[in-house]
Specification:
Elements: H1 2-7, H2 10-38, H3 42-65, H4 68-71, H5 77-99, H6 108-124, E1 134-136, H7 142-152, H8 156-169, E2 175-177, H9 189-212, H10 218-240, H11 245-252
Helix pairs in contact: 2-3, 2-5, 3-5, 5-6, 5-7, 6-8, 9-10
Length: 253
């Protein structure tokens, strides 16, 4: 292992360590999110959660660009990423659910415990990320769920039912699109590019809703919710109509 790392030049290894530092910084943002919730600054906490999502959206791409397994082989980047994601995608939103009125008072602890168990299962499956780069089961997007519940301002009971449905979906082997790994979604590069652009547009729209809060904007709501419907539709389609194995082999090559 050390011999492999010694083959990489100092600039390449430095870039690799910077990418790992970027990933680890997501946990720092998570701690700041918890602090913001503790201080009663929920909107700030949601902004920090959004920042953590952005870090998670780009660090994997950077890691593949610098071939991080070759330049810094002594660090398990996938393990680091999972640790940080568990903090930001599960622990932080669960804390928000515990201390706010998003859920009915008497069901908060039950719902949070159910989410933690579902996330523990989802994060530790050997094929949680499938060989063709999909998430198997609801991919613990609890932070995104909490952001939507914050925007939609539904009743606590409705929020509880939605979250419990997502808990159940964590155990249902539907293949959910991995937005930054689209090689096996379609062999049409223009469709892949379109999905990347739609994901970016969703990010802009959802961030715009945070910026405007407590006001809203129907166009931004439509874009944000429309993307989620497209995401679910594509995920269901690829679950039941997977790419031909020969196409997968060609893409892998």
């Amino acid at each position: 292992m050390n011999q492999r790392s010694n083959k990489a030049s100092l600039p390449k290894r430095s870039l690799g360590w910077l990418v790992h530092a970027l990933t680890a910084s997501g946990a720092c943002v998570g701690i700041l999110s918890l602090l913001a919730v503790y201080e009663g600054k929920l909107l700030l906490a949601l902004w920090l959660m959004t920042a953590a999502i952005m870090i998670d959206a780009v660090d994997g791409t950077f890691a593949r660009m610098v071939k991080i397994k070759d330049v810094v082989p002594e660090i398990d980047g996938a393990l680091l990423d999972n640790i940080v994601d568990y903090v930001n995608y599960t622990i932080v939103p669960c804390f928000i659910l515990l201390v706010t009125d998003i859920l009915p008072v008497h069901s908060r602890i039950f719902c949070v415990i159910a989410i933690i168990f579902a996330s523990s299962y989802q994060f530790t499956q050997h094929d949680a990320k499938t060989s063709d780069h999909f998430f198997k089961g609801f991919p613990s997007y609890w932070n995104i769920a909490v952001i939507y519940l914050f925007f939609l301002q539904m009743s606590p009971l409705a929020n509880f039912l939605i979250l419990m449905l997502l808990v159940v979906m964590s155990f249902v082997p539907i293949k959910y699109v991995y937005p930054s790994r689209l090689d096996y979604l379609t062999n049409n590069k223009y469709l892949r590019l379109s999905i990347v652009l739609l994901t970016c547009l969703w990010g802009v729209a959802t961030t715009g809703l945070l910026w405007l809060y407590p006001q809203s904007n129907n166009l931004l709501v439509g874009i944000s919710m429309g993307y989620m419907l497209v995401y679910m539709g594509i995920s269901l389609y690829r679950t039941f109509v997977p790419l031909d194995p020969e196409v997968l082999i060609n893409n892998a090559a």
